[in-house]
Amino acid sequence: MAHGYQHVFLTGPPGIGKTTIIEKVCKELRLKSISMKGFFTAELREDGKRVGFDIISLDGNRCPLARIGIDSEGTGPKVGQYVVKSFESVALPILQTEMSHVTVLDEVGKMELFSQRFELAVKNVFATNTSILGTIPLQKGRPIPLVEFIRTHPSVKLFTVDYKNRDSVPYEIVNLLASAGESHGKP
């Protein structure tokens, strides 16, 4: 990739548009016939209030990631007010399937880090020629090891999204990822 970057990650405050940027980039990459795999996280709302998150694979497979409230089975860890459900059944197969040009990871954060297998799978993708397009939370509080690994990795171009740049960032990312495919001889 130009400037030595193979991977692109976004950070910024909640609600700034990181997932929207990822969706725009994916749409443009599809138009360029660039192969992708990965997942998005989507807010789940009831009566205008956020009650949880789902994980949605790029091929449309959807499962619960986290919900507000009590875990009826008593097995899910909690992050703040959210009980984290198992998302390994969707996320791990995506990361372990055949290589693609781009792997989408929206988002790598606290809830995902209750899975050591997920953390290992993400690090394994870093060891391949696949480019990663993802999001990480802003740095605050106690560092999350995988997030810090990503934030400080020399092959990661990190964009901090704000209201001024969120309309131009998708085009920069498409150009970076498209040129990465050419420099690595990917489809």
TrEMBL record:
Residues 4-162 form the AAA+ ATPase domain. The lineage of its organism: Eukaryota, Metazoa, Ecdysozoa, Arthropoda, Hexapoda. The keyword ATP-binding applies. PANTHER family: CANCER-RELATED NUCLEOSIDE-TRIPHOSPHATASE (PTHR43146). Keywords: ATP-binding, Hydrolase, Nucleotide-binding. The keyword Nucleotide-binding applies. One of its GO terms (molecular function) is ATP binding. This is Cancer-related nucleoside-triphosphatase isoform X1.
